[in-house]
Task: structure prediction
Amino acid sequence: MTVAAPALAPSSVRPARVSGFDATWLLWIAIIAVLLFLVVSPFVYLVVTSFSAERTGEFTFANYAVAWGRSRYVEALFNSLRLGAVSAGLAGLFAIPLAWGVSRTNMPGRGLVRILVLVTFITPPYTGAVAWILLAGPNAGWLNRFYVFATGAEAGPFNIYSFTGLAVVIALYSFPYIFIFTSAALELVSSEMEDAANILGAGTWRTMRRVTLPLALPAILGGLIICFLEAIALFASPAMIAIPARFNVATTQLYQFFGNPVRVEVAAAYAMPLLGVTVMLILVQRLMTHRKGFVSLTGKGGERRPIELGWWRWAMFGYAMFVATLSIFLPYLFLVQAAFAKAWGRGFTVDNISLRNFHFVLFEHATAAQSVINAFLFAGAAATAGVIITLGVAYIVTRRLVPFAGVLGFLCIAPFVIPGVVLAIGFYAAYAPPPLALYGTALILILAFTTRFLPIGYVNNIAAMRSINPEMEEAVRILGGNRITALRRVVAPLLKRSLLGAWLLIFIPATRELSSAIFLYGPGTKVVSVMIFDMSEEGNFEYLAALALILQVLTLPLLWIGQRALGRDFMLKRTAT
Amino acid sequence: MSKLVLSNITKSFGAFEAVKDLSLELQKGEFVSLLGPSGCGKTTTLRMIAGFMPPSSGTIELDGQTISTAAGVVPPEKRRMSMIFQSYAIWPNMTVGENVGFGLQVRKLASAEIDRRLDRILDVVQMRGLKGRYPAELSGGQQQRVALARAIVVEPEVLLLDEPLSNLDANLREEMRFEIRRLHDEFKITTVYVTHDQSEAMVTSDRIVVMNKGRIEQIDAPHVLYGRPKSRFVAAFIGRTNFLEGARQGSEVRFDGFSAAASMLEGASGANGLLYSLRPQAIGLAAHKPNGGMLAVEAEIAGRSYLGEYWDYQARPLGAAKPLRVSTGPNTVFEIGSRVWLEIDPAAMVRVE
Result:
């Protein structure tokens, strides 16, 4: 049947193309270089600087001695940890009932509550803090004035300038993290597991306590940890509230080390414990939420039916509206009032209404309008760079184009554990001195924003790449198209929406990023968050409110585009890693 | 000259050898299946033929030209092959027409020629009316047809199929088997088909390559593979069978519960450890001792299952430890515990390794 093929003449052997080295390696080297520049070098400089003597650069422990030599410096760190714990606890009280109500019960207005959580989520913490200064300032605050008006007392009971005030404000604007984690976990608990408890005689409440909540517990704890870390890394709210209340937290202390004269070595040394705490807790969080064995979090849950709450559903709804009142309704009401007021303290009268504030910040103020443009330009550049870099890494990692691709993925995720202020100190240490001398330039802000939001881009792009079966590309190639054709004709069209989504998820938070910008901006590169912060220090609440509202309104069309591209909830589902 | 020649192909991933010293030749127009359990190296072999991965050693030749060596490979897009993937890999961003026409476009054919060929192939797979649809609007079977059309329309030198039917439901799977063979009979494309389903391989293939742990166990036409398996693995993997261990005692071979003259059995000249495969269909059941050249063994019915198309009996030869499985027609009925005679054709007992 088969005749042995005659030996082939060597000339008939087509030279096979060597596959050992091709363009993907060049891409790999380029991306490695970029990641070294963006992630590794600032981190290394941060550590090295903390051990370097000022000017001489010799090895020393003196910075640590200075940074930790005074009890009030140490106290600031403990204040941060206490603040983190209290804020996370409060945020849990806000978020967990809401998450359960929205994802597992027949509470009315579930869609509305989701939207309100989203609005809370896109409210910058400093905007919330300013609103609460208007609401609960010791004498002039609206809540105190209503209290005095209603009871005839001498003074109101609320004082935002206190540890409790700060903790509440932080909790009000970070609870969405816990909400996201918890509702995602609860949505994976199958009704069958609850049915199993019901059939054995447990009622709704007992089932929730013994089955549902324990199953969601790792996710809830993970959300609490993220909230804790948000609270200790936050700069603006403590600077606006803690400093007038005469206490320091770690980030405000760092800011003081960074003030005149700039003692970056001491700041670096002081940042180390903050970094250590963050790294450790992130590891704990990963271990908890990624642990196998909690079937409900990994498997498909089967169908889910909402739990019938009876009359309790109105109680749940009431609680949700109470939380929304604190985080959105009251703050925005009085922000809008201040933005349109000649003087915010004069209240809601017709003759107090004016558009002057908007006119001033947009057309008269020397840098306010420019700061908005700067923020959007820098955020746009950072989002574009971040999406391109992380897409390249995600492509390499998912297609296993090179050995050790995982290292690239790790570097993209690593900035997640670096608080914004600490990242800024690293960038300052690495790129402020010559030869690059980037301090105060637009470039250093763009680079810092890019690094800061690399994890968001990476998480989204890797998920998008994983959703594209490699066989889609292989089908192009076996039919005669090369890798470029495959990218152009198949991968790019399929990724379009995800890329737009990733871009928005970086862009939106980058437009309002303060904690890294505050250490790196220069006279010509002020961004809107820094502008708002400055106005709060000057006490210009009317202008500030106008500017903050402009920022929020500009965000709305972006949200709309994102929802069109990626579906409702894109912001809530995709941001938390 | 052979169309496609794989010579001494080995592929290792670290210390693990997925394919070991595999050699295979395909004639022009031949349909060959690679059949084996998951992890046997069949998909790896297919992907090496496609050029998605280089072999660790060995060569692959197409029409006498080397296209794969350990040093380098002609990239997939230069091989003039096409492939149907397990996931179909239909591009969701293109319509049926755009999907099927893609390969022709890449080959830079005139658009009139593309349209002509496109319409013809869509007629062949009965998808002409759905040319403008997007893949998300198609059923699984229709997507499968698009994948087939897309791969065939470019008239490839070699067509590769990677478990193309594993995502379909049972009825459709059976229908598509015949469809794939029909298309092969019409276009005569040299084809390599990877599957773990023996009936798929038997319906479609001219020859079947049975693979196990990276090695070829046997290459033969389907009926030869079933009737004359060479190894225990092949006998067990292709259909159901009884394994009979025998020991030579003088002129006889002693099995569990019965014995047979060595002269009647193939390859019984060896020493101990003789292993035979005997298909359940090759054993007859009778109420009375049969006459003739058959081997007759008295047995007791130990269990039975009725499967509609046949009875599956477990019959234990008197004094034996293990029962034999026997298939009979649906009208041959014996109660459990009743005595029967097994009729065994010694020629159906195949010596395996």
In short: The first strand of chain B starts at residue 4 and ends at 13. The helical segments of chain B are 42-50, 96-106, 111-124, 140-152, 170-187, 198-204, 222-227, 232-237. Chain B touches chain A at residues 1-2, 5, 25, 27, 50-52, 54, 61, 64-69, 71-83, 85-87, 89, 91-93, 102-103, 106-107, 150-151, 154, 160 (CB under 8 Å).
